[in-house]
Specification:
Largest sheet: 5 strands, mixed
Structural class: alpha+beta
Shape: globular
Low-confidence stretches: none
CATH topology: 60s Ribosomal Protein L30, Chain: A
Number of strands: 7
Oligomer: single chain
CATH class: Alpha Beta
Mean pLDDT: 95
Strand content: 15-25%
Helix content: 25-40%
Order of helices and strands: EEHHEHEEEHHHE
């Protein structure tokens, strides 16, 4: 597990920790923050050495519309503000079932494109079912809060390589 995500911004090195991303997002979706953090950790490792990736050249598309995911990507890449972040439902892998289908991320860096998909065991069915439930009770909300934190802890305590598989779609020459 990396202690921070290191990118550059016009030749300035920037480091972002998971705690930075949580502070930026707030307490609502720690699991989503953790997922985006691990996706970036994995993708940055494919695209170059620590600190060699220019944050403003990263383009992100995902089928996951969660606010924690969005905010973590925004903090590190500025992709939301600059129009390089897209929620695209066609990326979902429906054949993986409701629990895993939306955890698909396509990251493009200067023409190199990778697709990351969640491995089994990091998102539990109870979380997925409860998160989709429209009329949650106070008890449901309390349970969902616990499940979000448990998922965040599971994701963050694991190396990115064990959380997300990477499919290399295109690498530059």
């Amino acid at each position: 597990m990396t202690s921070s995500l290191t990118v550059t911004d016009h030749e300035t090195t920037l480091d972002f920790t998971y705690e930075d991303a949580l502070r930026y997002h707030g307490p609502q979706a720690p699991g989503g923050v953790a997922h985006a953090y691990k996706v970036l950790e994995r993708a940055l490792g494919v695209f170059g050495g620590e600190g060699s990736v220019e944050r403003r050249d990263l383009v992100v598309a995902t089928s996951h519309a969660g606010p924690g995911v969005r905010d973590a990507f925004e903090l590190v890449t500025r992709a939301v503000t600059e129009g390089r972040y897209t929620v695209d439902s066609s990326l979902a892998r429906r054949e993986r079932g409701n629990t895993l289908a939306l955890y698909v991320f396509r990251v493009d860096y200067r023409g190199a494109i990778v697709t990351l998909t969640i491995r089994e065991g990091f998102v539990v069915e109870e979380f997925s079912t409860l998160a989709r439930k429209g009329d949650r009770t106070a008890e449901d909300e309390s349970r969902l809060t616990v499940l979000k934190q448990e998922m965040a802890d599971r994701v963050m305590s694991s190396p990115a390589e064990s959380v997300y598989d990477v499919e290399v779609d295109t690498l530059p020459d």
